[in-house]
Amino acid sequence: MSVVLVLLGLVVLAAIAAVGIYNGLVTRRNAYKNAFSQIDVQLKRRYDLIPNLVETAKGYLKHERETLEAVVAARNGAAAAARAAAANPGDPAAMAALSGAEGALAGVLTRFLAVAEAYPDLKANQNMLALQEELTSTENRIAFARQAYNDAVMAYNNARETFPGVLLAGGFPPATAFEVQVAAEREPVRVQF
Protein backbone atom coordinates (compact mmCIF):
# COMPACT_ATOMS: atom_id res chain seq x y z
CA MET A 1 0.00 0.00 0.00
CA SER A 2 2.76 2.44 0.94
CA VAL A 3 4.59 1.76 -2.36
CA VAL A 4 1.43 2.69 -4.23
CA LEU A 5 1.15 5.91 -2.26
CA VAL A 6 4.79 6.78 -2.93
CA LEU A 7 4.32 6.13 -6.66
CA LEU A 8 1.13 8.14 -6.66
CA GLY A 9 2.94 10.96 -4.85
CA LEU A 10 5.74 10.90 -7.45
CA VAL A 11 3.22 11.04 -10.29
CA VAL A 12 1.48 14.01 -8.66
CA LEU A 13 4.84 15.78 -8.18
CA ALA A 14 5.79 15.11 -11.81
CA ALA A 15 2.43 16.47 -12.97
CA ILE A 16 2.85 19.61 -10.85
CA ALA A 17 6.38 20.11 -12.22
CA ALA A 18 5.13 19.66 -15.81
CA VAL A 19 2.37 22.20 -15.26
CA GLY A 20 4.91 24.65 -13.80
CA ILE A 21 7.28 24.19 -16.74
CA TYR A 22 4.46 24.58 -19.27
CA ASN A 23 3.14 27.70 -17.56
CA GLY A 24 6.67 29.12 -17.44
CA LEU A 25 7.07 28.64 -21.19
CA VAL A 26 3.69 30.26 -21.86
CA THR A 27 4.59 33.19 -19.59
CA ARG A 28 7.90 33.75 -21.36
CA ARG A 29 6.27 33.47 -24.79
CA ASN A 30 3.69 36.08 -23.80
CA ALA A 31 6.46 38.28 -22.38
CA TYR A 32 8.37 38.43 -25.67
CA LYS A 33 5.15 39.05 -27.61
CA ASN A 34 4.33 41.90 -25.26
CA ALA A 35 7.86 43.27 -25.66
CA PHE A 36 7.40 43.22 -29.43
CA SER A 37 4.19 45.22 -29.08
CA GLN A 38 6.28 47.96 -27.44
CA ILE A 39 8.57 47.98 -30.46
CA ASP A 40 5.51 48.13 -32.69
CA VAL A 41 4.20 51.19 -30.84
CA GLN A 42 7.50 53.03 -31.25
CA LEU A 43 7.89 52.02 -34.90
CA LYS A 44 4.38 53.33 -35.62
CA ARG A 45 5.31 56.57 -33.91
CA ARG A 46 8.33 56.89 -36.21
CA TYR A 47 6.30 55.97 -39.28
CA ASP A 48 3.83 58.73 -38.36
CA LEU A 49 6.62 61.29 -37.98
CA ILE A 50 8.26 60.61 -41.33
CA PRO A 51 5.45 61.97 -43.56
CA ASN A 52 5.45 65.17 -41.51
CA LEU A 53 9.20 65.44 -41.90
CA VAL A 54 8.97 64.90 -45.65
CA GLU A 55 6.09 67.36 -45.98
CA THR A 56 8.06 70.01 -44.09
CA ALA A 57 11.13 69.46 -46.25
CA LYS A 58 9.22 69.27 -49.53
CA GLY A 59 9.04 73.02 -49.95
CA TYR A 60 12.79 73.38 -49.53
CA LEU A 61 13.97 70.27 -51.35
CA LYS A 62 12.26 70.80 -54.68
CA HIS A 63 15.26 69.40 -56.55
CA GLU A 64 15.56 66.35 -54.29
CA ARG A 65 12.39 64.62 -55.38
CA GLU A 66 14.08 61.21 -55.63
CA THR A 67 15.32 61.46 -52.06
CA LEU A 68 11.86 62.34 -50.76
CA GLU A 69 10.26 59.52 -52.75
CA ALA A 70 12.88 57.06 -51.46
CA VAL A 71 12.07 58.05 -47.87
CA VAL A 72 8.34 57.57 -48.42
CA ALA A 73 8.87 54.22 -50.19
CA ALA A 74 11.20 52.95 -47.45
CA ARG A 75 8.77 54.13 -44.79
CA ASN A 76 5.89 52.28 -46.46
CA GLY A 77 8.00 49.14 -46.85
CA ALA A 78 9.04 49.21 -43.22
CA ALA A 79 5.46 49.80 -42.07
CA ALA A 80 4.27 46.78 -44.07
CA ALA A 81 7.07 44.62 -42.66
CA ALA A 82 6.22 45.78 -39.13
CA ARG A 83 2.56 44.82 -39.63
CA ALA A 84 3.63 41.35 -40.81
CA ALA A 85 5.98 40.93 -37.85
CA ALA A 86 3.34 42.14 -35.41
CA ALA A 87 1.00 39.42 -36.66
CA ASN A 88 3.52 36.78 -35.59
CA PRO A 89 6.29 38.18 -33.37
CA GLY A 90 9.36 36.00 -33.23
CA ASP A 91 8.77 34.38 -36.63
CA PRO A 92 12.20 34.18 -38.30
CA ALA A 93 11.02 35.24 -41.78
CA ALA A 94 8.94 38.15 -40.48
CA MET A 95 11.72 39.37 -38.20
CA ALA A 96 14.30 39.14 -41.02
CA ALA A 97 12.00 41.14 -43.31
CA LEU A 98 11.44 43.74 -40.61
CA SER A 99 15.16 44.04 -39.91
CA GLY A 100 15.89 44.48 -43.61
CA ALA A 101 13.14 47.05 -44.09
CA GLU A 102 14.22 48.97 -41.00
CA GLY A 103 17.80 48.97 -42.26
CA ALA A 104 16.70 50.36 -45.60
CA LEU A 105 14.63 53.04 -43.87
CA ALA A 106 17.53 54.04 -41.63
CA GLY A 107 19.76 54.33 -44.69
CA VAL A 108 17.43 56.62 -46.63
CA LEU A 109 16.68 58.69 -43.52
CA THR A 110 20.39 59.23 -42.99
CA ARG A 111 20.75 60.27 -46.62
CA PHE A 112 17.68 62.53 -46.36
CA LEU A 113 19.02 64.32 -43.27
CA ALA A 114 22.42 64.71 -44.94
CA VAL A 115 20.74 66.35 -47.94
CA ALA A 116 18.65 68.55 -45.63
CA GLU A 117 21.83 69.88 -44.04
CA ALA A 118 22.73 71.47 -47.37
CA TYR A 119 19.67 73.74 -47.13
CA PRO A 120 20.24 76.36 -44.39
CA ASP A 121 16.65 77.62 -44.50
CA LEU A 122 15.38 74.08 -43.93
CA LYS A 123 17.86 73.51 -41.11
CA ALA A 124 16.57 76.65 -39.40
CA ASN A 125 12.89 75.79 -39.85
CA GLN A 126 11.36 75.38 -36.38
CA ASN A 127 8.97 72.66 -37.50
CA MET A 128 11.86 70.69 -39.02
CA LEU A 129 13.90 71.09 -35.85
CA ALA A 130 11.02 69.89 -33.70
CA LEU A 131 10.42 66.90 -35.97
CA GLN A 132 14.10 65.98 -35.97
CA GLU A 133 14.18 66.16 -32.19
CA GLU A 134 11.08 63.98 -31.98
CA LEU A 135 12.63 61.53 -34.44
CA THR A 136 15.78 61.30 -32.35
CA SER A 137 13.72 60.67 -29.22
CA THR A 138 11.74 57.99 -31.03
CA GLU A 139 14.93 56.30 -32.25
CA ASN A 140 16.08 56.03 -28.63
CA ARG A 141 12.74 54.55 -27.60
CA ILE A 142 12.95 52.01 -30.41
CA ALA A 143 16.42 51.02 -29.26
CA PHE A 144 15.22 50.47 -25.68
CA ALA A 145 12.15 48.54 -26.83
CA ARG A 146 14.27 46.39 -29.13
CA GLN A 147 16.64 45.61 -26.27
CA ALA A 148 13.73 44.61 -24.01
CA TYR A 149 12.30 42.41 -26.78
CA ASN A 150 15.64 40.71 -27.42
CA ASP A 151 16.06 40.08 -23.68
CA ALA A 152 12.59 38.52 -23.51
CA VAL A 153 13.34 36.36 -26.57
CA MET A 154 16.58 35.18 -25.01
CA ALA A 155 14.81 34.24 -21.75
CA TYR A 156 12.12 32.38 -23.70
CA ASN A 157 14.61 30.53 -25.90
CA ASN A 158 16.75 29.63 -22.89
CA ALA A 159 13.71 28.28 -21.04
CA ARG A 160 12.64 26.12 -23.98
CA GLU A 161 16.15 24.85 -24.80
CA THR A 162 17.37 23.98 -21.30
CA PHE A 163 16.39 21.10 -19.05
CA PRO A 164 13.63 20.54 -17.96
CA GLY A 165 11.91 22.96 -20.38
CA VAL A 166 13.23 21.04 -23.37
CA LEU A 167 11.01 18.11 -22.31
CA LEU A 168 7.83 20.12 -22.96
CA ALA A 169 9.05 22.63 -25.57
CA GLY A 170 7.73 20.73 -28.59
CA GLY A 171 4.78 23.10 -29.05
CA PHE A 172 6.89 26.21 -28.48
CA PRO A 173 8.84 27.19 -31.59
CA PRO A 174 12.01 29.25 -31.13
CA ALA A 175 11.64 33.01 -31.32
CA THR A 176 13.92 35.25 -33.37
CA ALA A 177 15.52 38.37 -31.95
CA PHE A 178 15.21 41.73 -33.69
CA GLU A 179 18.78 42.10 -34.87
CA VAL A 180 20.37 44.81 -36.90
CA GLN A 181 21.25 43.34 -40.31
CA VAL A 182 22.24 46.44 -42.23
CA ALA A 183 25.36 48.35 -41.30
CA ALA A 184 23.62 51.69 -41.92
CA GLU A 185 21.13 50.91 -39.17
CA ARG A 186 23.91 50.48 -36.63
CA GLU A 187 24.69 54.14 -37.04
CA PRO A 188 22.32 56.54 -35.30
CA VAL A 189 20.26 58.87 -37.42
CA ARG A 190 22.36 62.01 -37.49
CA VAL A 191 20.53 65.14 -36.45
CA GLN A 192 22.20 68.52 -36.28
CA PHE A 193 20.64 71.57 -34.72
TrEMBL record:
- How would you describe this protein's topology in the membrane? Single-pass membrane protein
Which InterPro entries does the record cross-reference, listed alphabetically? LemA-like_dom_sf, MamQ_LemA
Q: Does the keyword Metal-binding apply?
A: no
Q: Which Gene3D superfamilies match?
A: LemA-like domain
UniProt key word Membrane: yes
PANTHER family xrefs: MEMBRANE PROTEIN, PROTEIN LEMA
Q: Which family does it belong to?
A: Belongs to the LemA family.
Q: What is this protein called?
A: LemA
